[in-house]
TrEMBL record:
Residues binding ATP, per UniProt: G106, Q107, T108, G109, S110, G111, K112, T113
Name of the protein in its database record: Kinesin 14-IIa protein
GO biological process, alphabetically ordered: microtubule-based movement
Similarity comment: family membership: Belongs to the TRAFAC class myosin-kinesin ATPase superfamily. Kinesin family. KIN-14 subfamily.
Domain Kinesin motor intervals: 22-350
Length: 382
């Protein structure tokens, strides 16, 4: 019976997937922080069809306004719940045996950790994607408990300077871990990273607090370190059909990426320069992999970074990828904002075109958005 339901779910999932594409890119603009009131934003316009327009703060004129289109844009007032809403179906598909990757991309301070984790010690309203995803996962597995038994286990790792480290090992050792792709054993790509069975959101919260603590070890300030390393929370799900005994495996990677800001080459030296180069290389490798997948290219360059090697099984094929790109509205961030949006557009462009072209062309969409924008501007004048 479970297999029938799972098969139906798969069919529906594939249908939705065909419509929406495997790769989705959402943009999120963070609000100004307390104390930053009345500051001018570089974000000039957000359309309800996924368009965002950025104005160059130092030069006026219409040609200084650049617009970008994604699957959706969340403005500064979007709640954590709203942002999670479209992610929910992906959680269900993990329980149906699919692999899913969710990324937070953006410069340091743009809101990546806010989206993924929420603030420190969040109340449920402030919960980020991580907690909501796990909460849903446990909820749905409970719903299905008469037909399938689910086992959920998590790993949490950090990739720093192209080295993989376990954030949940109890002795806090700094052992460097190997990635073993195709190791079918338990479906684990990093078999030596500790694996923690969990059956409640609270248990996961505790583990994440430990991971957070371990991340700070060996670095002067947690913020510094966390902005220069990628953190990967992996949720492994095994479902066993209670009647037939057949098993299904799915996994969910929740990735808080290193800050994407470019480091001034003339200023960075030594360790700082090395970090910057590693981050740069791994973020471009990720961009290359997603772009190759979106273009259905025959060669996908997974081997170019530890990050893409680690996530290989969950990028491409039937797997689903969701990327939240974060924008800081500050005028000082203009340069980084444009380069963030360009990165995201490269990743999103091909699939956006393919998935939505049967509805209307990009140009028509753009014009439609401009009309809406002008109407809006007119209304404000009146
Ligand atoms: P990052 O992880 O990209 O470096 P953070 O998530 O730490 O950035 O966000 C930087 C600051 O902005 C934090 O103080 C965070 O609480 C705040 N912040 C980010 N996004 C939002 C948001 N959507 N709503 C309210 N505060 C936010
Ligand atoms: Mg962060």
């Amino acid at each position: 019976q479970y297999h029938k339901v799972a098969a139906e779910n798969r069919e529906l999932y594939n249908l939705v997937q065909d419509l929406k594409g495997n790769i989705r890119v959402y943009c999120r603009v963070r609000p100004f922080l307390p104390g930053q009131r009345n500051v001018q934003s570089t974000v000039d316009y957000i359309g309800d069809r996924g368009t965002i327009a950025i104005q160059n703060p130092t030069k006026q004129g219409k040609d200084q306004r650049k617009s970008f289109t994604f699957n959706k844009v969340f403005g500064p007032s979007a709640s954590q719940e709203e942002v999670f809403l479209d992610t929910q179906p992906l959680i269900r598909s993990v329980l149906d045996g699919y692999n899913v990757c969710i990324f937070a991309y953006g410069q340091t301070g743009s809101g990546k950790t806010h989206t993924m984790m929420g603030p420190n010690n969040p109340c449920p309203d402030d919960w980020g994607v991580n907690f909501r995803a796990l909460n849903d996962l446990f909820y749905i597995s409970h719903e299905r408990q008469d037909v399938v038994r689910y086992e959920v286990a998590v790993q949490m790792m950090e990739i720093y300077n192209e080295q993989v480290r376990d954030l949940l090992c109890s002795d806090g050792t700094n052992k460097k871990l190997e990635i073993r792709n195709n190791s079918q054993q338990n479906g684990l790509n990093v078999p030596d990273a500790s694996l923690h069975p969990v059956n409640s959101t609270e248990a996961v919260l505790d583990l994440m607090a430990l991971g957070h603590k371990n991340r700070a070890v060996g670095s002067t300030a947690l913020n510094e370190r966390s902005s220069r390393s990628h953190s990967v929370l992996t949720v492994h799900v095994k479902g066993t059909d209670l009647t037939s005994g057949d098993a299904l495996r799915g996994c969910l990677h929740l990735v808080d990426l290193a800050g994407s800001e470019r480091v001034d080459k003339s200023e960075a030296i030594g360790e700082r320069l090395k970090e910057a180069q590693h981050i740069n290389r791994s973020l471009s490798a990720l961009g290359d992999v997603i772009a190759a997948l979106a273009q259905k290219s025959s060669h996908v360059p997974y081997r170019n970074s530890k990050l893409t090697q680690l996530l290989q099984d969950a990028l491409g094929g039937q797997a689903k990828t969701l990327m939240f790109v974060h924008v800081s509205p500050d005028q000082d961030s203009y340069g980084e904002t444009i380069s963030t949006l360009k990165f995201a557009e490269r990743v999103a462009k091909v699939e956006l075109g393919a998935a939505q072209s049967n509805k209307e062309s990009g140009e028509i969409r753009e014009l439609r958005d401009q009309v809406a924008y002008l109407r809006d501007a007119l209304a404000r004048k009146e």
